[in-house]
Write a structure and sequence with these properties.
Blueprint: E1 8-19, E2 22-33, E3 37-41, H1 48-56, E4 63-68, E5 71-72, H2 78-84, E6 86-89, H3 101-110, H4 115-120, H5 125-138, H6 153-166, E7 171-175, H7 183-196, E8 201-205, H8 209-215, E9 218-223, E10 226-231, H9 233-237, H10 240-247
Parallel strand pairs: 3-8, 3-9, 6-7, 7-8
Antiparallel strand pairs: 1-2, 1-4, 4-5, 9-10
């Protein structure tokens, strides 16, 4: 496949991973433009989380390439990919539970890998400004002095997402960001994610179809490790192959 122009944030080119003869991801190709929000759909076992693992360096691919803004990052170490600009949010939040919300944001703002060193470092004016913006975005103003481990499930998710934004992750991978959330928390999460469009590139794996409707412009559907379909919600709903493999006759709802 020809190398794409610089407006592309993420290129996955014929990517595969073989686990003892089982291809969890099988020659999968996808292009995500800068500032785009892409939703990745597929039944359990379709390969969605494995694809995220391959992009983020958690799993090494058997063949194919991954490009981040035209830079080949295929099979780089996980920490190196993170420093290059890919941030990953897992279903279980990766936050410092013993620290306050404000301290978590400060840790994210310093860029220093040691938490102890982080707490003693002064933040730049740019980092302070970014933290203020993220506090407003996530709506965590009233819990800045609260221990992160005492937050509600939704607040923990917003804190972790906020930390990725503060770290200026150019591409953010979100694995089922609304899992376990209340309806109100899910709505707030959709508002936060919609406000990130254009500023960050987002790849979202999600099962909640109501949530997908709130955020999605382009949907990519995986099936048995392969690309099955790509398009708008309307196009995906009317795609016969998608109905057969995943959605059923009821479509997205």
């Amino acid at each position: 496949m020809a190398r794409a122009a610089s407006q592309t944030a993420l290129i996955v080119d014929a990517l595969s991973v073989d686990f003892g003869g089982f291809k969890a991801v099988d020659h999968f190709t996808m292009i995500v433009n800068n500032g785009e929000l892409r939703v990745l759909l597929g039944a359990n076992g379709a390969g969605k989380t494995t694809l995220m693992d391959l992009i983020s360096g958690r799993t090494k691919s058997t063949s194919g390439q991954v490009y981040l803004y035209d830079q080949d990052i295929t099979n780089w170490e996980e920490h190196k990919i993170a420093r290059a600009g890919i941030g990953r949010k897992f279903q279980i939040p990766s936050i410092f539970r013993e620290l306050t919300v404000a301290e978590n944001f400060s840790v994210a703002g310093t860029g220093e890998p040691s938490v102890i060193k982080n707490l003693g470092l002064s933040l730049s004016a740019e980092s302070k400004s970014r933290i203020e913006e993220v506090v407003q975005l996530t709506g965590l103003e009233d819990v800045l002095d609260k221990r992160a481990g005492d937050l509600s499930h939704g607040q923990m998710q917003w804190l972790e997402l906020g930390m990725l934004i503060i770290q200026d992750a150019r591409v953010i991978l979100l694995d089922e960001p609304t899992a376990g959330m209340t309806h109100a928390e899910t709505l707030k999460t959709s508002e936060i994610i919609n406000r990130l469009k254009g500023q960050h590139t987002l790849l979202v794996v999600e099962h909640d179809m109501a949530f997908v409707r709130e955020i999605a412009s382009t949907i990519t559907v995986m099936h048995l490790g392969k690309l099955l379909a790509e398009g708008t919600i309307t196009e995906i709903e009317s795609n016969a192959a998608v109905k057969d493999a995943y959605l059923g006759s009821g479509g997205i709802h």
